[in-house]
Amino acid sequence: MMNFIKNFRNDEDGAVTVDWVVLTAAVVGLAVVAFGAIKEKADLLTTQIAEDIESQERTDP
């Protein structure tokens, strides 16, 4: 029983797993923030392109 307790106390596999989970969550969080910033500008650009295409179609014979 004492060996089990010593081994359990020295085992760091769970700590490494927690580190990777936290790191992965941070990367996903940053990706969500970046997507939000890019999406807003991309929507604006898409709207402007659509308006330019419509104005070109109206002026073409």
Question: Can you describe this structure?
Answer:
By secondary structure, the protein is mostly helical. The protein has helices spanning 2-10, 13-59.
Radius of gyration: 27 Å
> How far from one another are the termini?
90 Å
- How many helices? The count is 2
Helix content: over 70%
Described by its quaternary structure, the protein is single chain
The percentage of residues in β strands lies in: under 5%
Order of helices and strands: HH
Query: What's the β-strand tally?
Result: 0
Task: Give the overall pLDDT as a whole number.
Answer: 87
Spell out the blueprint of helices and strands.
Layout (H helix, E strand, L loop, with lengths): L1 H9 L2 H47 L2
Keywords:
transmembrane helix, 61 residues, Flp family type IVb pilin, mainly alpha, transmembrane, membrane, rod-shaped, 0% strand, 2 helices
Task: Summarize the entry for a quick read.
The chain is mainly α and 61 residues long. 92% of the residues lie in helices and 0% in strands. The chain has helices at residues 2-10, 13-59.
